[in-house]
Amino acid sequence: MASLDSSSQWISSSTQGDEKTMAPAPYFRKEIWLDRPLAKATLHITALGLYQAEINGRRVGDRALAPGWMDYDTRVPLQTYDVASLLKPGKNVLGVVLGDGWYCGHVGWGERQGYGAKPELLADLEISFSDGSGTHVVTDGSWTTATGPILENDLLMGEIYDARKELTGWSEAGYDDSAWTPAQTGPARNIILDTIDYPGVRQTDEFHPQPLGNHRYDMGQNFSGRIRIRVNAPRDTSLTFRHAEILNADGSLYTENLRGARATDTYICKGGGEETWEPGFTFHGFRYVEVEGLPVGAEIDITGLVLQSDAPSTGEFSCSNPLLNQLQHNIRWGQSSNFLEAPTDCPQRNERLGWTGDAQVFIRTAAFNRDVRRFFHKWVQDIRDAQKPSGGVPEVIPSVKFFGHEDGGPAWSDAAIICPWTMYLCYGDKEILADHYDSMQRYIQYISTEASINLIRSHPDSTAYPGYGDWLALDGSGKTEGATPKDLIGTAFLAYDASLMARIATVLGKAEDAEKYTELHSRVVQAFQRRYVTPEGLIASGTQTAYVLSLHFDLVPEEVRATTTRELVHDIKQREYHIATGFVGTPYILDVLTREGYLDIAYRLLEQETFPSWLFPVKNGATTIWERWDGWTPERGFQDEGMNSFNHYAYGAVGDWMYRNVAGLDLDESDPGYRHVVFQPSPGGTITWAKARLQTPQGPTGISWTIVDGSLEAVLTIPENSRGTFVAPKGFRKPASAEFGPGTHSIKLLPE
Prior knowledge:
Layout: E1 11-12, E2 26-34, E3 38-48, E4 50-55, E5 58-59, E6 75-77, E7 79-82, E8 90-99, H1 101-104, E9 120-129, E10 134-138, E11 144-147, E12 150-154, E13 158-162, E14 181-182, E15 184-185, E16 192-194, E17 201-207, E18 210-213, E19 216-232, E20 238-244, E21 246-247, E22 253-254, E23 264-268, E24 275-277, E25 284-292, E26 299-309, E27 315-319, H2 322-338, E28 339-340, E29 342-343, H3 356-369, H4 373-386, H5 415-427, H6 430-448, E30 452-453, E31 456-457, H7 486-507, H8 511-532, H9 544-552, H10 561-574, H11 586-595, H12 599-606, H13 615-619, E32 632-633, E33 637-638, H14 654-663, E34 665-667, E35 676-679, E36 689-696, E37 699-708, E38 711-718, E39 723-726, E40 739-740, E41 743-749
Parallel strand pairs: 6-16, 13-23, 35-39
Antiparallel strand pairs: 1-15, 2-8, 2-11, 3-7, 3-9, 4-5, 4-8, 9-10, 11-14, 12-13, 17-26, 18-19, 19-24, 19-25, 19-26, 20-23, 20-25, 21-22, 27-36, 28-29, 30-31, 32-33, 34-35, 36-37, 37-38, 38-41, 39-40
Helix pairs in contact: 3-5, 3-14, 4-5, 5-6, 6-7, 7-8, 9-10, 9-11, 11-12
């Protein structure tokens, strides 16, 4: 486990910006003399801000934007690297350059310096010699510092790099640092140096763009990252690179939706031949790049570099509808773009915050696409760090000082319970439940008492923050928050939370707590029914989301479920089979229709190609999920530029349904972690074949099925440590045996 010698001190430069002004990035160096054979060398390092470390001119590690993002008032990640191969006998140099990052750069729409005034470094090079002796080279006042070519760096604004000011050889022996000044030392900080093993940000892919003319380039994919350039231009040439997700009708960059984010990098050439550069302390959400300042005859090559938290790919889905395959592609890229240190809402504008609502609706889909267990272990810890003394949880995590309520409101802050539970289901991970059980208890105590009146959460008379409603619903209300009452949403999620807490307590062997939360759930359901459900089964407000939540969370009496469902279906038909739900209702609507016997309606919605629908953006060239159903339409053009991301993953939560129902790959919640794989394909719509695979904690599993001459032929793969059950879809005869052991099995079902 990583540790720091107690003599290590936080060090910094005297150079710093202010709330609006950026300062040059500070460079630090320390010379080290090795006079004995080396046995082992380990660098423990972190920063308030971002760091890039070098030893003898060679980069340490492959992380980008290290050490990462947490609430710096509480904890900061501490990384450890084996650096023995970078050291040599005699004189060595350890060098580190710091960036502003989330610590003192722009975060969201707030000012700079949200956590602190300037970046700081803390490090310990732990050296063991072959003779059994050892030493520590720690950050202290003996280090020297200077500024160099990085004139500005900011995650939102971009980076300015003046190659004429490069400090050639600065992290190597023999460099003259006589003009450098001593580093400033700071006091010890009462924060946790966290050694949690979570996936760091890395470059995972690259794109070579197509030129569009007018010095514009198309990467072919909307993504998060930055560019690398190779250029041959005269000295003093200043090249400006602007980034955008989408183009205007005239082919120019559409940048209005970036709001206050400049999203612009500048490189000033030193001349004398080919130069290669990529910014080190920024990232952008973009598909298109425009270059300004390139002289006539100058040569430039641009490569797009994809950055994301390096969670391994685990799942694949495809089917006979190529538009749904593109939708799956868009879902995956929306996740890749926004799972960067935290599950952020968008990567392009001045926001990029870890909105809890987006994360909780998408987390099950995320766990199909990638191994997100360690990613969410870190983020759920961030939730606990941000939790208020009252038990409330803010709506953005990691917390930021310029924004956040005592509690972020229904469907958002409920991530505190929903996300750990989902990790348990997908990975069989009891640890995350046990680690955060107290936090979850405090949260549900808060929302069921202080945030509720008579168990109606977000009651209009309550002082609690009512939340964001059914965010971006198109239910005819004309309101961003939709027409579904916030207290209805709040009470529905309170009931759901109580039911999950009863199950979590049971898993952890806490029988008394399980009984307590079961009783709470029963009382919340009764309160919901009294306030929102008529004796006939109609739901207050009559929105699709109101009906979906009532049915999905089992909040209506069994005797009126059929009526409640018919009202939902009636609304869908009235809208000519179009969806009207927002962030809250969308994840559940297809599940509700499937469960209640309206699979045909679910497929009509899924395969709908006209606005509003999942496939409307696909038909209009999207390569990621849009924030709004109407981010762009032929009739209206672009939506409100103040909130119009073209890379938001929330509506991509439908990927979960495609894996579980179109392909038919699911788990048994009573035996989580895919120890019992449930295969339950639900053919419908135009789909004639589908397949999915998933690398589970038990090993690879998967299903492929096709309909041939009216019969359904399926191939099942079951991991070595699992068992499988096949559930025949309606319209087909049941197989002779539905239970299977590890291995590959073929099934053929005849039509009934």
